[in-house]
From TrEMBL:
Name this polypeptide is given: Acriflavin resistance protein
Keyword Nucleotidyltransferase set for record: no
Keywords: Membrane, Transmembrane, Transmembrane helix
Pfam families: ACR_tran
Transmembrane stretches, start-end: 9-28, 331-350, 357-377, 383-404, 436-458, 464-486, 521-538, 843-862, 869-889, 895-914, 949-971, 977-1001
Coiled-coil regions listed in the entry: none
Source taxonomy: Bacteria, Pseudomonadati, Bacteroidota, Cytophagia, Cytophagales
InterPro entries, alphabetized: AcrB_DN_DC_subdom (IPR027463), Acrflvin-R (IPR001036)
Origin superkingdom: Bacteria
GO molecular function: xenobiotic transmembrane transporter activity
Amino acid sequence: MTRYFIQRPIAVIMFFIALIGLSVLAWLNRPVSLLPDIDVPEMAIRVDYANASPEAIENNILKPMRESLATMQGLSDLQSTASNENGLLRLRFNYGQRMDLAFVEVNEKIDRLTDQFPADMSRPRVIRVNYTDIPIAKVQLIPTDAANMIESSRLAENVIKKRIEQIEGISLVDLNGTVDEQIKIIPDLKALQRTGLELEAISQAIQSANQELGGVEVKDGQYQYYMRMAGRLNNAEDIASIPVRINEDKYIPIRQLAEVKTAEEKVSGFHFFNQNRGIVMNIHKQPQAVMTDLMPEIEKSIKQFKKDYPTLDIAITQDQSIFLKAGINNLQGSLLFGGLFAFGVLFLFMGSFRLPVIMGISLPLSLILSFLFFEIFGLSINIISLSGLALGLGMLIDNAIIVLENISRKRMEGLNLIDSCVAGVAEVQGALISSVLTTLAVFVPLIFLSGVSGVLFFDQAVSVGIILTVSLGVSFVLLPLLYRLFFKNKKDFKKEDSRFFKSIIQGFEKSHHWSFRNKRLSFFMILLILPMGIWSFWNMEQKGLPKITRTDAVVKINWNEPIDVIENANRSQELLDNLNKQLEFSETDAGIPQYLLSLENAELQESLIYLQFQSDNAKAEQLTFLQNQVKKSYQKASFEMENAKNAFDMLFASEEPYFRVQWQDPNLKNANPESVKPALENFPCDNFQAGPSLEEESSMILTIKQKELLHYGISPEQIINQLERVLGNYKISELKQFAIITPVVLETDEKAFADLLKTAKVKNNEGKSYALGNFVDYDWGNRLKKITADVSGTYFSVNLEQETVQKNPEKLTEEINQWASDNSLIQKISGRYFTEQENLKELAFILLISVVLLYFILSAQFESFWQPLIVIFTLPFGIMGAMIVLWLGGSSINIMSAIGMVVMLGIMVNDAILKVDTMNRNLKALEKRDKESVYEAIFSAGKIRLKPILMTSITSLLALSPVLLSGGLGAELQKPLVLAVMGGLTIGTFTALYFVPLVYFQVRRFLGV
């Protein structure tokens, strides 16, 4: 087959040109995303109900929804949390569930429950959880005049938002911090008292003046008209002029009874940028959009907005495309340095400029051809698939080096050009195919991992498989053809090795003879790697992601006091005032945000602050200072800080506690702190954190005096209505002008609660007025801040940290079960601990399958049952070598280092397979197989494969080394991977050169073959 392609160069070249054209089209068509488009089997339902308590939201809204949704097919878990003014219900389904159909079903069930929900509550929002919903950037809009928030909000919602959404590839612009206009009626209670009027008089006057005819038609001959009321209310001045009747002959305008003004509506949250109140836009992209193309378009639009709207200061923050750019830069760096070092190594070992040029053509060509298969398999260009390509590049270089070196060796043996190309490919063809299959045998089973890990490994495994398969095609078809074309006019082919390699082979010959003369010492030196690697493993930290130098952080402060959102914002800004100039900028969301896609169960007393510092040292110093300030000034406040979440955190971090104990008390009627505490007094572990269902807050308990109501002839509804008018924003009516609706609300001035009860009046059936305070008692007390529930109903919970659980998890579980039994509780234990245990068992089983597949493939290649074991036994040495270098490099066991080990094992296997294959070929050529002849065959194989093994190893090591010397996000993410590959590859090279021949020789002697 190789001879056929070599003898038809024009046809092959045209074929590859056609493939390149198709690949370029596929590359231009492929979506570029931060992450793969993962159909995450999760959904959330947000409930927003102003002025509602957790009990009201739980009983009236969340409980009916849970009962209705619990019967859904494929539902694996259902959790809800009710807090002040909002609630959140999260649904988790089994992987493989059709989430588009589940989304429709959830909405249908909510629509059926609409009649049971409170009439003044907006419809619950159903949100599909998707990791691609991470905003690609945030746009900050800060009015230059703080008084222009209403106009700025309208501009943001009606103009800027729509113009950004018109950019091709943008799916949604999610806003927070906007505010609407409303007309406030602030009654003068003393003026009302002097005129003998009640609050209802103002409300009734406005409602009467704002009447509207509904659907009245008037015919005038052949014409038909729709009638509308003249003199509709249009603004605050119109309302202030409305007359209120005092008696039969006297009227007084509302302006004499109340202050009427246009103002901002009452909000439940604020957004600040650099301590200036403003609006933030979260920009979300469509799954098929190219992120790297979107950001320049967004920046271009922002530049135009700055010119068009000088009343706004506009800035872009938290640009997530930097992670994708880091992945692309890493791939480009791997390709560039891999090519340069491959060029240098080939020249040193082969002494020719032509071979490095062939390599320089084949590498980018293989990469371009890979994108054609991306199109076929429907893969997007994202961080995961790019990492697969980057991992495959090292193996691609190895295949090319092995083929080129073997062709050159055949020419040195005296074959003509075409026969050298054919024989050189044929000799290593089986070994290279086996090495690719063994690499895939390690990667492909990982896609069967459950959860998001399996979905992510699919992209990586397929991309590795693609580039390795393409590299085989290029190595077997294009490389020999290029070799013939480059060397066909070269008559004086150099038939000896370069001086550099001659010096290396002399050292190898001496060391190889020494290792066979001192077999026991050689085995001891190699086996010493195993305990050193195990020791390194136990002395390294284990974490999900490598340590990354981050100059940003997120601080979450809950004041744990019944303050309003204005006080919350003031406290947050005062804290930021104390930070020094090392803070580049800050973003603050105080209270409950307006984001449509928000999955946070936020509170009015909570602030989320994003901080960007100038350096990592400044970050550590300022966060410590900020935490001390909070502890000093606000003893009740809770303070949490963490790195700002990026794409990797969203993928691998989990909000689920490490170990959660939840229980239900069948005898518990009143969910208050005092009724829950007795069960916790004898909890078997002291080091626990109270779950959200055990958090307390101060509250006012209001009691209506029923006897007084009966005595004075006043109904409870009158008391409740009057309390709503006096204490809250009571909506009277609304003004409509085209698409703008302005609510008219009644708002009392901010007095102490006791004074309001004395001042406000309520009338009985006879028209007599009495102070509202005569019919109401109030007291202060604590109540539970949140109500958590699952399918079985409401529950309480505590969380345990990893250090507490890992001491003796089995004993702790038994003690918790006994505690629940002693207190007559229904308990359930869950958390990441159990998930991780299941994942480890699953991973161990899948790796076992990988080793079995590896053995089957090698058995078929070598036609032997014992030779594959030699290759497999080299793998632990590579892993231990990776552990040692990771420990020496100050790294940890994490996702990236684990991926590096998988890559390293693929490269190690290649070297060992080539060595065993060559030893087998040499032994087949022997007429007699005595001890000396077998040794000579093994030694000859070592010399034959020394050059490709060293070239592939040195090229890979040199190509990876720049990552260790560079900085930045991309380098820090790749450093553990690089250390793992370099450590394993270094040990793997020595095992291929010395351990494999020793074991091969000894096993043959033991088996007598």
